Amino acid sequence: MAARQLKSFTREEVEKHNTEGDLWIIIDARVYDLTRFKDLHPGGKSVLLEGDVAGQDATEMFYSLHRNEVLHKPQYQRLMIGQLEGEESTIYDRIVGRISTIPYGEPTWLSKGYHSPYYTEGHRKFHKAVRTFFDEFVFEDAQAREEDGKRPSQNVIDKMAEKNMHAMRMGPGKHLEGRILMDGIVKPEEFDYFHELIITQEFVRCGNRGYGDGLLGGKVIGLPPVLNFGNPDLQARVVPDILAGKKFICLAISEAHAGSDVFGLQTNAKKTEDGKHWIVNGTKKWITNGTFADYFTVGCKTEDGFTVMLIERGEGIETKPIKTSYSPTAGTAFITFDNVKVPIENTLGPEGGGIFVILSNFNHERWVMCCASVRGQRAIVEECMKWITQRKAFGGKPLHQLAVIRSKMASMIARAESLQAWLENVTYQMNHMNYQIQADKLAGQIAFLKSYSTQCAQDTARDAVQIFGGRGVTKTGMGKFIEHYHRTIPFDAILGGTEDVLADLGVRQAMRHMPKNVRL
Ligand code: HEM
After folding, report:
1. Looking at ligand 1, which residue's alpha carbon is closest to its atom 19?
2. Which is nearest to 124 in space by CA: 180, 198, 182, 196?
3. Which amino acid residue places its CA nearest to atom 26 of ligand 1?
């Protein structure tokens, strides 16, 4: 609430203003004058004139029908004319940087009284700064952009660049050298996968799937091939601007003809006679950040097989938005390459060796998706915990008094807890393995974790809709995060390999490691 001097009223004084021409109410010890607003009230006038509302304390009633954020909107804040004498607001509100005290609203490492073998004091300090940053600078923009479908605001991207977040989101590595991370809270050489997990998980708390991707998801998957396989000149030319949030990159692999099937791709690159350029023709589909990308990391069919190259926006390239189940904020594109001339120096990795270039990043990419999926489920648990406490039904009892609701909560909580524990174990392993060993030991683990996590997410989305009822399928109001989650979550089960493909990969990896001659 804005810090302004409020008048004090007694309950008796408020009670006198209980008519259509003079209508006050109390919500959470604050006094609101609804005399003029009543005709504009989205829930209608009549409800505000009821005997237990007009001139009364309508706190219970208000919170069973509205999210707290309604009262934060400037147009409604103006309705507040004072507060009750000697009484304070007590409603649990969203406060920048706060750790939730809702049971299971945070992973155990952040919950009071619990311990963790994985996180140091340094991680905790880092977490505090990252949470405060997202709450302060990103949350509101996420809500607004998901609503209007525009790209994440450049000032958010710039602020993230000031903290070197775009670089940190690429994980530990050489690209962090010489950078001041989060105002120096962590040194580049100390930055590990738990720091990265923290950023990804805090990011997800903004609760908007399209925005999450719009906030440079394309870079997280499109830049690694440049960092790992680009020649030094190319890197020097493109990487600094991308990590500064001034230029944008995306990964352009999937096509209308082929999604997970990289060998089915049809976009082709042919060398010019002088061997100095590629000429690229074809189309790409479902490319995150494609509508606004300056650079495209593109997989092409070439004479020797499959080759990856960096293509810069220019002549012969057209990007068109695709309508998806989330907002256009993600910049999901259909891309056409029409005789696009690409310098041979933009080739990433060996000619014909593109599959290795793409595969080498899959584990990290999928692990990032796991971090996001697991945190997303916890956010839904928190929403449901609040709702089952405040929502009264069947004779004025809160929903949590119904065994069937508790049973759904039990499953949701168990999923969120077990997935976070598994994720932290995998993250710990990553911190202790180089990239080659990770590929050998963790490809299967990460594939299973992602496959299982996105299955759980869909179960949790379904349970949450059951708990919220009609509100769980309504885009505004109490269930808006549930509706959004339920609508957008199936996407997570597809990107980075579908659930079935990944589960199968995990088993195949396990079979590769079976000792010979085992018998029952
Ligand atoms: C400061 C006071 C109030 C403000 C600013 C306010 C504002 C709003 C807004 C913005 C909505 C639409 C929410 C949405 O997007 O779903 C709404 C809906 C509604 N409001 Fe209020 N309201 C106030 C007080 C009350 C009170 C005291 C009642 C008491 C019964 C009430 C009953 C309703 C109902 C029944 C709905 C429809 C809810 C639904 O469709 O789920 N409002 N109100």
Report:
1. 43
2. 198
3. 62
E strand or H helix at 373: helix 354-390
**Whole-structure pTM value:** 0.93
Q: CATH for 7-84? A: 3.10.120.10
Each residue's pLDDT, cut to its tens digit, for the chain (520 residues) gives 445 678 999 999 999 999 999 999 999 999 999 999 999 999 999 999 999 999 999 999 999 899 998 999 999 999 999 999 999 988 887 789 999 999 999 999 999 999 999 999 999 999 999 999 999 999 999 999 998 999 999 999 999 999 999 999 999 999 999 999 999 999 999 999 999 999 999 999 988 989 999 999 999 999 999 999 999 999 999 999 999 999 999 999 999 987 667 778 899 999 999 999 999 999 999 999 999 999 999 999 999 899 999 999 999 999 999 999 888 999 999 999 999 999 999 999 999 999 889 888 889 999 999 999 999 999 999 999 999 999 988 888 999 999 999 999 999 999 999 999 999 999 999 999 998 899 889 999 999 999 999 999 999 999 999 999 999 999 999 999 999 999 999 989 988 888 999 999 999 999 999 999 999 9
Q: Does domain 362-512 have CATH number 1.20.140.10?
A: yes
Please, which residues have CB within 8 angstroms of residue 4's CB and are 6 or more apart in sequence? none
Is residue 42 within 6 Å of ligand 1 at its C-beta? yes
Distance 17 CA to ligand 1 centre (A): 19
CB 81 near ligand 1, within 6 Å:
no
Per CATH, which fold does 243-352 belong to?
Answer: Butyryl-CoA Dehydrogenase, subunit A; domain 2 (2.40.110)
Q: Is 430 in the pocket of ligand 1 (CB under 6 A)?
A: no
**Ligand 1 centroid – CA 203 distance (Å):** 30
Any atom of ligand 1 within 6 Å of the Cβ of 402: no
Nearest Cα to Cα of residue 435 among 165, 89, 171, 258 = 171
Provide the Cα torsion 480, 483, 486, 488; round to 10°: -80
**DSSP for 114-161?**
---SS--HHHHHHHHHHHHHIIIIIHHHHHHHHHH-PPPPHHHHHHHH
Residue ranges of domains in the chain:
7-84, 110-215, 243-352, 362-512
What atom of ligand 1 comes closest to residue 471's alpha carbon? 41
The answer, yes or no, to whether ipTM is higher than 0.90 is yes
Q: Choose the residue to mutate in 18, 52, 61, 66 for probing ligand 1, maximizing ligand atoms within 8 Å of C-beta.
A: 66
Question: Does ligand 1 come within 6 angstroms of the Cβ of 58?
Answer: yes
The partner residues of 280 in beta bridges, in order of sequence, read 269, 340
Q: Is the CB of 79 under 6 A from ligand 1?
A: yes
